[in-house]
């Protein structure tokens, strides 16, 4: 089985999805439209980057035509499209083979309602045309069905499964976490809150820092803000300005390798999630699998659904204070292990791979059953 996947090759979501597909027995050719290079640890088997082509209108046109020719050359069993843009919508409409469209959340909850005219029409038509659609929250599912009733029957909830062999509660001594705390100048006995989302207005990182300064006064409680690569520099400066002079606020600004993520969660006691819009956040599930408490918004539909299966604390960001932190820490001491078990049962990597495999097998017969010849494999590079 073979697919050509279109998406942002520098995104952890795309990298993770490629791993799921390969584990499900599918060969994947990635056509990358990320703004930069993929991190060194993203070992795609075949990556064709279009990043250098899309700096102009002519380059965008050339890359679109190149994509159509590449699909014909590679002769995949199906095509995967990640994140519904007008460009990808048009591509979906022009395909003569099954397409699995994966919606991430903001493309449906924010971009689709904001689009007008041709852009809106293309997106709706692509939802109707796609052979299968995946998303990771009930709210996105309902928005897809509302935008295109024809899409409802072929949309499936498939989560970004967590590798629970990798993300799991740390040993009682939390040695890896203590090493990271020491490197960042964070006291070993502090209650440490983690803001782990991209520093961008949608994730309200600046407001989280403001609220920590105003409402969390306990000297034993600290905040660690992870400033991930790709964040807007102006927004990052405004976040730091809000927390200037507060010695209980720390910033992690270097890139973290995948192998370091368990140590990050082992260093922290709870994670904070207060976005304006969101689907089911992978980082929240990683934190739950790692034994952290969760303090999150009470207005996110996806978080309400998660609260049915996990013990998390939901409240308005304006209510974040010492009492809320104390209540969340009390839950952590009682429910860290049950939460981790729930991730293994409901949101594991194995579950995601199995669901993808079933979807693909229901969509496309195995090559041996069709007896269809293969096209020659293309070469890796930006000019394919």
List keywords for this structure.
7-stranded parallel beta sheet, Rossmann fold, 13 strands, globular, 384 residues, disordered C terminus, 15 helices, 6-stranded parallel beta sheet, alpha/beta, 2 domains
Q: Briefly, what is this?
A:
By secondary structure, this protein is of the alpha/beta class. It has helices at 12-23, 57-74, 86-94, 106-114, 117-129, 138-147, 175-184, 205-215, 233-242, 261-267, 282-289, 301-306, 322-346, 349-363, 367-370; strands at 2-7, 27-32, 47-49, 78-82, 99-102, 132-135, 155-157, 191-195, 221-226, 249-252, 270-273, 293-296, 313-314.
Give structural notes.
With 384 residues, the protein is of the alpha/beta class. The chain has 2 domains: 2-161 and 348-370, Glycogen Phosphorylase B (Rossmann fold), CATH 3.40.50.2000; 175-346, Rossmann fold. The chain has 15 helices and 13 strands. It has helices at residues 12-23, 57-74, 86-94, 106-114, 117-129, 138-147, 175-184, 205-215, 233-242, 261-267, 282-289, 301-306, 322-346, 349-363, 367-370, and strands spanning 2-7, 27-32, 47-49, 78-82, 99-102, 132-135, 155-157, 191-195, 221-226, 249-252, 270-273, 293-296, 313-314. The strands form 2 sheets. A 7-stranded parallel sheet has the order 3-2-1-4-5-6-7, sandwiched between helices. It is globular, with a radius of gyration of 22 Å.
As residue ranges, the low-confidence spans are 371-384
CATH second-level architecture of the largest domain: 3-Layer(aba) Sandwich
Give the CATH superfamily of the largest domain. Answer: Glycogen Phosphorylase B
Fraction in helix? 40-55%
- Please give the domain count: 2
Q: Could you give the order of the helices and strands? A: EHEEHEHEHHEHEHEHEHEHEHEHEHHH
Based on CA atoms alone, the radius of gyration comes out at 22 Å
What is the CATH class name of the largest domain?
Alpha Beta
Shape: globular
């Amino acid at each position: 089985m073979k697919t050509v996947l279109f998406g942002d090759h520098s995104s952890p979501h795309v990298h993770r999805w490629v791993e799921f597909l390969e584990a499900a027995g599918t060969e994947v050719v990635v056509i990358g439209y990320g703004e930069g290079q993929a991190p060194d640890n993203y070992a795609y088997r075949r990556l064709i980057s279009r990043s250098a082509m899309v700096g102009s209108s002519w380059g965008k046109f050339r890359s679109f035509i190149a994509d159509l020719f590449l699909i014909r050359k590679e002769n995949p069993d199906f095509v995967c499209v990640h994140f519904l843009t007008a460009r990808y919508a048009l591509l979906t409409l022009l395909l003569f083979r099954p397409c699995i469209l994966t919606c991430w959340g903001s493309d449906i909850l924010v971009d689709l309602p904001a689009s007008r005219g041709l852009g809106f029409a293309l997106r709706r038509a692509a939802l109707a045309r796609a052979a299968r659609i995946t998303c990771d929250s009930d709210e996105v599912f309902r928005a897809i069905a509302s935008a295109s009733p024809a899409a409802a029957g072929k949309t499936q909830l498939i989560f970004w499964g967590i590798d629970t062999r990798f993300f799991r509660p740390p040993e009682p001594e939390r040695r890896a976490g203590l090493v990271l705390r020491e490197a960042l100048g964070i006291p070993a006995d502090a209650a440490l809150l983690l803001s782990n989302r991209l520093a961008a207005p949608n994730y309200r990182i600046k407001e989280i820092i403001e609220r920590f300064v105003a409402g969390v006064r306990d000297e034993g409680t600290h905040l660690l803000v992870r400033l991930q690569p790709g964040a807007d520099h102006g927004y990052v400066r405004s976040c730091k300005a809000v927390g200037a002079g507060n010695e209980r606020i720390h910033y992690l600004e270097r890139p973290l390798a995948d192998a370091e993520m368990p140590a990050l969660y082992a260093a922290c006691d709870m994670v904070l999630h207060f976005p304006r819009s969101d689907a089911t956040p992978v980082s929240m599930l990683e934190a739950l699998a790692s034994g952290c408490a969760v303090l999150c918004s009470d207005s996110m539909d996806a978080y309400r659904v998660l609260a049915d299966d996990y013990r998390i604390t939901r409240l308005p960001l304006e209510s974040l204070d010492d009492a809320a932190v104390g209540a969340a820490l009390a839950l952590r001491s009682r429910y860290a292990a049950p939460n981790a078990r729930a991730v293994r049962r409901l949101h594991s990597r194995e579950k995601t791979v199995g669901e993808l495999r079933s979807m693909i097998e229901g969509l496309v017969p195995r090559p041996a059953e069709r007896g269809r010849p293969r096209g020659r494999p293309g070469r890796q590079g930006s000019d394919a």
